[in-house]
Each structure stands twice: as structure tokens, then as C-alpha cells.
Description:
Elements: H1 4-24, H2 28-43, H3 51-58, H4 60-72, H5 75-80, H6 82-106, H7 111-122, H8 126-135, H9 142-169, H10 190-222, H11 225-245, H12 250-260, H13 267-292, H14 295-300, H15 302-326, H16 332-340, H17 347-357, H18 363-378, H19 380-397, E1 412-415, H20 421-430, E2 436-439, H21 442-449, E3 455-457, H22 463-468, E4 476-479, H23 484-497, E5 502-507, H24 510-519, E6 523-526, H25 529-542, H26 547-569, H27 582-590, H28 593-599, H29 604-611
Parallel strand pairs: 1-2, 1-4, 2-3, 4-5, 5-6
Helix pairs in contact: 1-2, 2-13, 3-13, 4-12, 4-13, 6-7, 6-9, 6-15, 7-9, 7-17, 8-9, 9-16, 9-17, 10-11, 10-12, 11-12, 15-16, 15-18, 16-19, 17-18, 23-24, 25-26
Amino acid sequence: MEGLAFYALCYLAAAVLAVIVSQRVGLGSVVGYIAAGVLIGPVFQISVAGSGYLEQFSEFGIVMMLFLIGLEIDPQMVWRLRDKLLGLGGLQVVGTIGAITAAGIGLGFTWQQSLLFGFVAALSSTAIVLQTLEEKGLLKSDGGQASFAVLLFQDLAVIPMLACIPLIAGSGQGDSAGHGGTALLTNLPGWASAVLTLAAVGVVVAAAHYLSRPIFRTIALLGLREVFTAAALLVVVGITVLMSAVGLSPALGAFLGGVVLANSEFKHELQNDIEPFKGLLLGLFFMTIGAKIDPGVLLANWSTVVTATFGLMVIKALVLLPLAWFFRVRGPAGWLFALGLAQAGEFGFVLLTIGGDRGLISTTTVSVSVLIITFSMVLTPVLFALSNRIVIMLEKRGRNQRRADQPDQGTVILAGVGRFGQIVNRMLLANGYKPVVLDYRADVVDNVRKFGVKSFFGDAGRPDLLDSAGLAHAALLVVAIDDPDRATEIVAYARRSNPDIQIIVRAYDRLHHYKLLDAGADHIVREMFDGSVQAAGMALESLGMHPYEVEKRKAVFVEQDTAGLARMAKLVDVDTPAASNPDFVAGFNDIGKVIENAMMGYRSGYDEMVARGWNAPDAGSIHVPKSAGIDLPS
């Protein structure tokens, strides 16, 4: 069986299956696409007629990726990260290129080939690293922010790298579709070619700024949703054709066009329209790379692949560690930064493909290099786990030497001092209590220490840090982090370690409330509920209702909602989704009938409850649990 439908079926089935499996095991989509390419190429020997055209088509994914990166360039963010972006990112790229180039020349490669390898090794996997940092809740930590700055600089550094490859290749054989030159400038004198090239860049910038916005605005006013998508694609394809016509990289033009449109009012719409096409075409590009991998090359060069993979990660770690120390990204953050970025990245596949098409390296060398990059990306979860183990080992070994910098055992432990936790911390301090504060942002820790509060850098979800803070003897734990899953884990561990401790925790929503209750929390605060009730009360006052009447109605609303939460908690099954639990659904439809009827216009029951009377709570009605073990200040 042959034909376009059959080949489309093979590509799509392999991609869906391989990417799902890759994501489930934590390797990311890029590795999945490459594995899909291996399946349809070397394994099942599915060849597609006109594969050259397929590769050219897939390279539009690279152009779209650079366009979206340009759209993401926020001048304020770049300025805020300027030190790490230019200093840490720039030195990392230059240092890695220098080290790998020297190693390549020492191994007998030409300086051009070694420089290409340096370009490839200097880049890390943006997709895998950012996804892993976000999953672990470390993206806003010192190590996470440093990693983000370096990854952003690496993405920007791809542009000059793409421009340099044709220069170092000279008149190499072949031509990369979509990246190579054209006969348009062949017969022109040098000065004319330079002028025409600069003019093309100027046309891209001017058209993106002055021409595209009126067109997008007209389309938006007419409500032509599908035409807007077509216009977004037209921008990218038009830039590709123009830049290819003058012999420049289409990726460079797409990036410039994205930067120009970064502050446009249509930025988010452009991102939403192009993102699906970028994902599919870029996935197709990685699949074509995987289809070129020859299993025979792996078997014949397995020792080279393994040695080079570990050599690459060691060299990158040795470059990153001193830079982290110099830029004050030290301790746990430094190890997270150094080992988290020690792999090669997806842009390396792009550079290798162009280098191979330009004749810089052989097909076999391209296949071996692709395997090295792939294996380094596959080992990324291992690198993150290794960084965590190193941090724990160093803390245990140096605990006695650094006793002054370890969390003291305290009566109150506060996990997280972000937007929510800092208010809790301020109120505790104002009333005479000094909690032990745990947070993974060093700048926040330093600011809290200025008020004489014992605060320490680290992930509050780590059992060893909670134990060091005195969890076993603490009277109160306040969990104020904004990661629902991690908050639930902290509550469950705290309840197992100290059954008598009082636990107050921040909940994301109703379903999170039930999970925290099951984990052992004593008091649960839904992060939006109280503020929303206050806003609703202000709205009623603004509409003319007496403040006393507003307070009564707020109290009844809160009482009914809280009672409903308590009743529903008995129907929750942690192993069954809420929508699939018939008892939960029936109970949800039954609770809060008074409020629901009032919302529908039948307010007699609600008004009756309000009319029964309500008094503000006096001081004697405030309950303080004796088990808390906290003495009120005199």
C-alpha cells in the first residue's frame, strides 16, 4: 500500500504514539519525535517519494519557532535579567564553544568542524529544561531564573550561529533548503549584493511594523478569523521567501519580524495562530532527523557515542559551575543550574542538518552527533536527580560546620513567603511571633532576614529541610505555597511526622480542599474565597445596601458554603475523579440549595435565614486550639 494517505497515516501514528510514551516517561516531545522518525525510517523502512520536499516543508517549523521566540522578547524582562542574560549566558556560550572547539581540534577534526560542534554543544534543551523546572516548582528559584536567562541567550545566539555556518563552510557542497543562497545575487557586484541584503532586512522590519498592523487590524474588524490565521502564516512564509532570495537565513528574518511585532496588540493572537503549525512542522522536522539515523551507525560507533555523550555533559558542567559561583548562583541553586543545563538541545539538530547540507561534516558524522544530542537529552532527568542528591549529601556533610545557617527548631514553621505567605508572615511578626520561614528564592529569604526572622533557602517540600526546621516538635505549620500537589505532599508528610501539629494550608480550589482535608490539614483557606466575598460585600454596599445588612448576608453565604464543603468532604473518593463519582455529583447538586435558589431569584429562604438575626463575634467566641501549644503574648 502506498500513496499520500498511507504515508500520512504512518507519520501521524508514529508521532502520536512515540510522543505520548516519551512525555509519560519524562523525556519530552523532541525525543519522542526523533524516536518516531526512527520507527518510520530505519525500523519499518517506510520511504516517502519526494522526501526532499518533505524536509523543506518541515523546515518551516524552524522559521516559525524563531518567529515565536522573537514575539516573546519582552524588553522589560530582558532588562531585568540583563546581568545573567549577557554575562552568565554570554560567557557560557563562549566558554563552551571554546572548550569544545579545542577538544575537537585535539581529536583531529578541522577547525571548521570543531567550531560547528562547539555551536551545537553550547546550546541546551529549552523545552526539556523549562518543562522540568516548572514541574518541580523551581522555575522562579535562583537556579531556575539563571537557567531561564541562559536558555534565552542561547536561543538568541542561534541567529549568529546560523549566519556563521555558511561563512565557515565556504563553497561547501550542497545547499540547505530554506537556509541556503540563490542565484539572484550571483551576477551582482559585491557592493550591490550587500546593499540588496541590507534592503531586504529593512523591508522585513518596515513591513512588520508599518504594513502588517493595518492589515491585521482590518481583518480583526471584519471578524475574519480564518483569514487572520492565513495572514499570520503569510507573514512567516513571505519573510522566508524574501530572505532566501538574498541568501540570508529565513530564521534570521523571522526572528527580526517577531521582535518588531513583540509589542503589537496582535501579539497573542499571532502566537495562538502560529503555535499549532509550528509544533506540527517542527515535529515533522525532528522526525526527518530520526528517519536519517542508521542503527548500523549506532552499533558500529556505540563506544564513541557513549564516551562523547558523557564527555559533552562533563565539559558543560565544568564550564557552568565556575560561572554560577562567579555570578553568585551558589549552593543548591548552582548545582541545579550546572547539571540542569549540561545536555545539548534541539537547536543542535538544526545546526547539524545545515552543516551536513553545506558539506562541513559527513552523513555518518551527522548521525553520530544526532545520537549524542539525543542521549544527552534522554539523560536530563538523571541530571536533575543527581543535582538533588548532591545537594542533600553536601547539606548532611556540612551540617555541623554550618550550624549557624541551618533552620532552628521553631514553634511556627511557614512554608513559602510569596503573595500569600508574606501577609501571614507580617501579621505573625506584628503580633509577636517569629516563624521559621522556608522559601526557594534567595532574595526573598534575604529580605525576610532583615526583620530578624530565621529564614532559609530551600524547597519546603523536601522532608530533610522540614525536619531540620523542627517539624517534629513544632506547634504550627502554615503551608502557603502556590503548588497544589506539593502543598498536599507537605501536609501529608507533616501529619505523619507530627500527629499533634496544627496545620493551616492554602488551597487552590474546592477539589484541592478535599485533598488537603484527606491529607490531614486542620484549617484550609481557599486562596480566592475570602477576597471574593469581601469584593461582593463592597459591591452590595455600593448598590445602596446598609453595611450591617451586608455583613449579615455575607455571614449567611459563608456559613452555607462552608457547611456544603463539610458535607461534600464525606463523599469524596481520592481514587475517583469528581465528575465520575455519582455520590459526589448527587451531593453537589443537593448542597447549597438556599444560595442556589436565591441566585435563581427565589430569595425567600435566603432572606429568612438573614432575618433570624446575626451578631458580630465577640472576643470570647474566638476559639484557640489548646493543642497548638502557642502562648498568646501578654
